[in-house]
Amino acid sequence: MFGTFLKALLIILYATFVGFMFMGIIRKVTARIHRRIGPPIYQPIIDTIKFLSKKENITHGIIYDFGIIFALGATILALMFIPLGSISIMRAYGDLILITFLLEIPMLGIMFAAMSSGNPYAGIGAQRALLTLLAIQVPLGFAIVALAEFYGTFSTYEIVMAQQTSGWSIFHLPLLLAAIAYDIVLQAMFGKEPFDIMIAPGEISLGPMVEFGGKHMGILQIQHAMGLFAETLFFSNIFLGGAVITTFSSPILNTLATLAVLLVKQLAVLLIAIFVSTIFPRFTIDQAAKFYWKWPTIIAALGAILASL
Amino acid sequence: MNELLLIVFSPLIAGFLAWLLRVKGVKEAVGIIGSLIPLILLIKAYPSLSQNNLTFTLNVAGFEVGFMLSRLSWVFSMIAAVVGFTAILGMASTAKDSYEWLFALMSLTGVLGVFTANDLITFFVFWEVMTFASFMMVFKFNRGASLKYFVLSIIGAYAMLVAIGIIYAKTGSITFADISTAFSKDAMSKMLGGSGIFTKTETMLIYGLFLLAFGVKAGMFPLHVWAPDAYSETNQSYTAMFSGVLSKAGVYGFILLYVLMYGKLIVEFGHFRSAPAFGYIIAFLGGLTIIVGGILAALQEDIRKLFAYSSISQIGYILVGIGVGTALSIEAAIYHAISHALFKGLFFLIVATIIYRTGKTEFKDFGGLAEKMPFTFAMAFIAILSLAGIPPLVGFASKWLIFEAVIHENLPILGGMVFFGSAIGFVYLIRFTYAVWFGQRPSDIENTKDAPLPLAIAMGILGTLNVIFGVAPGLVAQELNKLFGQQIIGGNIWELDLGFGRYNGLLLTIWMTIGLLIAAIVYFLGASVRKVPVTDTYQSGNPVTMEYNLTIRRNFFLPLKEAMAFWLRISFDKLYHDIWKSMEDFAETARNYIYNGNVQAYAWYLAIILIILAAMGV
């Protein structure tokens, strides 16, 4: 019992740390693409510490506070279900549908908090976030359907294990199509250009985030870090074969190697997202909806139909 | 006296008493007791279900009116009794006169009769009682909406009557057991190459007629047009039952279709991939229902209309589950029927409370009510999480089952449709949340009070059930397994185990609590917070006062409307309206030409008939 909690705590700390590093990498790589030096890679951690140590915080009511806590709590919950190599708390219950839903819940918390502030920018941001969610759900759904039909199981861990023997998912044509669609969806899930419509800095003053400051913003930073980690991890698990390393005799070495392999895969997913985001300008919300309902949906639906044959 | 008879008729008797007494306080008490009796008796009847089914036959006017309480009808009757009881409790606050008590309770009798019917005549009679009573409830509020509902329902009901007539003419029996045997025998002989008693055309006709009949009641696309008007233009406490229970009569009808003629329909229609073809039609229409209902819900400007369309959308899930036609998917559909009744009943009670307290229905008049009605908001929070499919609540468990059941059968298009449905559910609920509960409060609802006691109790019951069944999803699943007499959904009361997917409500709740605790620790480690008013906000650096409208209350999803502009032009509502209009015109034309007031014309009619008779050689 105590061991499980310790393991959970370690996973949370690891996810937070790596997530912050990812955020740093995003800033660093973006800077290098623009021929700037950019901030040091640990910059997001410093930012978050600063946010959390503000002397005064404001609130607009109980939901404003609870929404933030709910968002972080739900992200932690999602993390517990995604298999992190062989170390995972509840990998037996790591169901594809469940994780897909769990990755969306934090958005609900953020929006509850944002909307309860009564700010019109938060309102418009929530509207854009919801329409983005609606737009990505179609290709996302087909991608998940393709996976479940190809492997005949909904368990993420079993899908990882199946890939150990039959090769990565993206080497099978139906799942390659699903992976392409999912990767386009990831761009919106990360909140990166061209689909960062919900936050839209410069256009609607950060949208839902506009009213947050101090510790609320700090918690959202932590949530964002964990979210980045969870989303890249889920993608690596279902499409890039995850990682189950058993070459070493020592279990600790095996675990470290697993984490390292996973980290490389997660970074690969992240870097694609960064490269895309730095060279594409933002879509408007109706363009985004029409885009997601056209190409990614066609690709993913084709994948799903091929997988079901 | 037989318990079954008491279960079915006690609401009706109570309704009549309430109508006769008309004394404030007494009629409410009588009505509530009348709706409580079926609930208590159903719970008491539960242990005896395992031995044999409760039956009762009544001889009325030469017909044998048969009732039977099987496991399936017990499950559906329980939905009716629980949600019916809470709706009646809510009506104690919102009903204006004894007229509403009579018809609300009468429709509860109708729906209980439909669920416990043992033959087609009983089924039809109570179907009509239910339709009539609900029509009368709507009629009092809005004539146009009620007539639209009534005409469509009557078309459905008489389609069913025709189907019953064909079945009776061919088999000579009306009891479910006999008909079921006749159809399976027929299917057998057809498979062996013989000619059955029903031809292929007749089977298709019966199927089509039943599809029409049950589709209208369930609100299946494209027969859903009555629902938004009828659900919104009535007492909203009653709508908790109208949408929560009466729409389930259509769902029950579809299940009955499986019970009666499954084998025959399979033989005649064959399979589409792994689903039976006749079921795939239902499932595909269900999928369209999800999408159409969801998108229209997002674009509504009226709180009641939003939930009416949302109701349609959720029924779509149930139809998808039923249509796919495996034991698992039907169990999932019944599970979703239960959870839909629970959360949608709760939603309409919330709407009833809001309208009762503020007297307004449109989004443009609301805002910031969460602070004034904390209990109602807490209940709305549960209902929102449940409908949107957020894990520790019952809405997730049932949706999850439908997802897994559909996708496991290798039906990718239906899978995509249900995924879209889950997102659109999220979308319209946030619209409701934003416009009603959060933001700036208009000054005319400044003095709103929280829910009255009866409504609060009713909401409390449904809210608690939403949480309990969500944390322990196995409670319902184990019960549904008994319907099929085998373990289809494995696991214990906390866990659902399908073999290819597992979901554990308790474990999830525990870890969610831990996650929230960790988040709360981080939160409380920071400095203390200072409460600021809603006008102390960022408005591009400008000062704002209460005169500014800061909350977006109109046309919240304008980009969605624009993106879907082409599809929104196609309206079935308009189509039916035009058909109805041309029928009225035709009637007018016929009246003018045939009854033209010219005596010679009438003489000519006589002459023509005489010529026809002569030609026939009479």
Describe the global form of chain A: globular
Largest interface: A-B, 90 and 77 residues
Element-level helix/strand string of chain B: HHEEHHHHHHHHEEHHHHHHHHEEHEHHHH
Structural shape of chain B: globular
Can you summarize the main beta sheet of chain A? none
Kindly estimate the percentage of residues of chain B that lie in beta strands according to DSSP: under 5%
Question: What is the alpha-carbon Rg of chain B in Å?
Answer: 26 Å
State the assembly state of the protein chains. heterodimer
Please state the structural category of chain B.
mainly alpha
Please summarize the sheet with the most strands of chain B. Answer: 2 strands, antiparallel
- Rounded mean pLDDT of chain A is 87
In N-to-C order, the SSE pattern of chain A is HHEHHHHHHHH
Radius of gyration of chain A, Cα only, in angstroms? Answer: 19 Å
| Helix percent band of chain A | over 70%
Major sheet of chain B: order of its strands?
Answer: 1-2
DSSP helix fraction of chain B: over 70%
Architecture blueprint of SSEs:
The complex is a heterodimer of chains A (309) and B (618).
Chain A: H1 2-33, H2 43-52, E1 57-59, H3 62-81, H4 96-116, H5 120-151, H6 156-166, H7 173-190, H8 214-239, H9 251-279, H10 285-308
Helix pairs in contact in A: 1-8, 1-9, 2-8, 3-4, 3-8, 4-5, 4-8, 5-7, 5-10, 7-8, 7-9, 7-10, 8-9
Chain B: H1 3-21, H2 26-45, E1 54-60, E2 63-69, H3 71-94, H4 98-116, H5 120-139, H6 143-171, H7 176-191, H8 200-218, H9 226-232, H10 236-269, E3 271-272, E4 275-276, H11 277-298, H12 303-324, H13 327-358, H14 374-388, H15 394-408, H16 412-437, H17 453-471, H18 474-484, E5 495-497, E6 502-504, H19 505-525, E7 529-531, H20 558-563, H21 565-568, H22 572-594, H23 599-615
Antiparallel strand pairs in B: 1-2, 3-4, 5-6
Helix pairs in contact in B: 1-2, 1-4, 2-3, 2-4, 3-4, 3-10, 3-13, 3-17, 4-5, 4-10, 5-6, 5-10, 6-8, 6-9, 7-10, 8-10, 9-12, 10-12, 10-13, 11-12, 11-16, 12-13, 12-15, 12-16, 13-14, 13-15, 13-17, 13-18, 14-16, 14-17, 15-16, 15-17
